[in-house]
Amino acid sequence: MVKVVISDKLGEDAVRILEARKIDVVFNPDLAKDPEALRKELADADGLAIRSATKATAEVIANAPKLKVIGRAGIGVDNIDIDAATGAGIAVMNTPFGNAVTTAEHAIAMMFAVARKIPQADASTKLSKWEKSKFMGRELFGKTLGLIGAGNIGGIVASRAQGLRMKVIAFDPFLSEEKAKDMGVELVSLNELLTRANFISLHTPLNDKTRNIISREALEVIRPGAFIVNCARGGLIDEDALAEALDDGRVAGAALDVFLEEPAKEHPLFDRENVVVTPHLGASTQEAQENVAVQIAEQIADYLLTGAVQNALNMPSVTAEEAPKLKPFINLGEKVGSMAGQLSEGAIEGITVRFAGAVSALKIDPIISGVVSAALKTQLATVNAVNATALAKDRGISITEEKTETSPNFGSTLSVRVTTSEGEFAVTGALFGGEPRIVRLGGVRLEASVSSCMIYVENEDKPGFIAGLGEVLRDANINIATFNLGRREESGDAVALVALDCGKDEPPLEAIRALPQIKKASTLRF
Ligand SMILES: NC(=O)C1=CN([C@@H]2O[C@H](COP(=O)(O)OP(=O)(O)OC[C@H]3O[C@@H](n4cnc5c(N)ncnc54)[C@H](O)[C@@H]3O)[C@@H](O)[C@H]2O)C=CC1
Ligand SMILES: O=C(O)CCC(=O)C(=O)O
């Protein structure tokens, strides 16, 4: 039975959805704080569903040998080691839209809270102080809001702020002028934003480029009296430098939902009058939590049960409709790619995948990933369908795709040509009743199904060879399951693909290579 561990506080709907799809669910939010218990649960788990409390580190991933998918019920994936997951062939998914409105609303609420000192006034009033003159605020109307990052959440914040009649400017190097214009947002440099904005709101992911984007230097040029709102990630602001800027009045106030270290139970910024804080509540509404729980449960179940891929950060998307159509071709691609890889000699320099016939109209990226992963397995221990194309690129191996709409003799064929330092080798396969068949091998036509233990033999086509091969196999006590023959037209050499009942035993390659007419003999494992 497929098993999914939920190690964070996810909406109960996630459990209901997974169980309805006959998935064994372990729902234990305490696991987020107990790495040892999490490791034990993950020993036989296929999926892991988390929010932000669970840290899916390289160590956690290395101890989860069956894990196929990590699903983040939310947006930020900085608590997941994506490189480690990719290296282990684990798909990493998130739910990019489920909590965006809620988080944008929190940013707007925080902007009001810090501008009108609502939390401080609330606390004082409840202490019967009635300090009316102490809590003089600032209006948002007519002010400039500077967004650092204007994607999903920043975009929603922009539209809400425009409703409040604020002028919205943004620093986002990846946002086109056209999109910014549609949003009614003026694109500016970071420096211009810092010097112009009355309110600055952060909405970027945390990465090496954005870490400390509100740096000490940024705070030196910031418009005096600006307010800063951060409902994205703690590491975006240099917290020490912010404390100083708040103290000397350069920054009028800060509203922070996120912190460098979380949970943040004690923090130097907490003592300040002009700071409003919440405990990473950006996504915490019933609506958002239902959305992300339902979405991630469905995405995980779809992936584990059908192969559909949605919102993955490390693999191409495949819809639930595409998945069943692709599955047999991915399987065919793996067999053909593996055979081409196993029969090539020398370092692989390039892999060309040619799609002919109906298959050319399908989404081919997942098939290519399967081909490349299978072809490179002979050379790279760590390759898998998730990291294959990236790994190939890394090693300077070119991946080329070719498509033709027609396939003369079959509905569809898939050909893989592997180019190496020593030459090239090509294999073509087709589906017969949904099962992979090899229909061309090294330029020779034949028709062979693929089984777990096979040998490939090239020999001078002279009488007596097959009998000799049969004797060698008989002496090794290995039964021949199927025997497929073809002939190379130009040289007249024969090619044979022989399926053997050899289990884990090695076929007697040395004895086969000693046969008089032999030119080449290789074992193939699938
Ligand atoms: N407080 C909370 O509970 C929540 C926080 N978040 C966080 O909010 C942030 C934004 O999320 P989304 O809007 O969904 O992401 P998104 O990916 O839709 O938007 C991010 C935007 O940042 C821009 N960007 C990337 N690098 C940049 C750089 N170096 N400088 C300026 N802009 C840059 C991108 O072009 C993009 O437009 C993320 O960090 C996410 O983790 C998301 C949900 C809840
Ligand atoms: O799950 C949460 O409460 C945090 C959400 C969040 O930070 C995100 O989705 O990036």
TrEMBL record:
Pathway-wise, it operates in: Amino-acid biosynthesis; L-serine biosynthesis; L-serine from 3-phospho-D-glycerate: step 1/3
Which CDD domains has this protein been placed in?
Answer: ACT_3PGDH-xct, PGDH_4
Q: Which GO terms describe its molecular function?
A: NAD binding; phosphoglycerate dehydrogenase activity
Keyword field: Amino-acid biosynthesis, NAD, Oxidoreductase, Serine biosynthesis
Q: What is its EC number?
A: 1.1.1.95
Pfam families assigned: 2-Hacid_dh, 2-Hacid_dh_C, ACT, PGDH_inter
Extract the PROSITE patterns matched here.
ACT, D_2_HYDROXYACID_DH_2
**Where does the ACT domain start and stop, copy by copy?**
454-526
**GO biological process terms, semicolon-separated:** L-serine biosynthetic process
Catalysed reaction(s)?
(2R)-3-phosphoglycerate + NAD(+) = 3-phosphooxypyruvate + NADH + H(+); (R)-2-hydroxyglutarate + NAD(+) = 2-oxoglutarate + NADH + H(+)
NCBIfam families to which the protein is assigned, alphabetical? PGDH
Can you tell me which family this protein belongs to? Belongs to the D-isomer specific 2-hydroxyacid dehydrogenase family.
* Its job: Catalyzes the reversible oxidation of 3-phospho-D-glycerate to 3-phosphonooxypyruvate, the first step of the phosphorylated L-serine biosynthesis pathway. Also catalyzes the reversible oxidation of 2-hydroxyglutarate to 2-oxoglutarate.
Protein name listed in UniProt: D-3-phosphoglycerate dehydrogenase
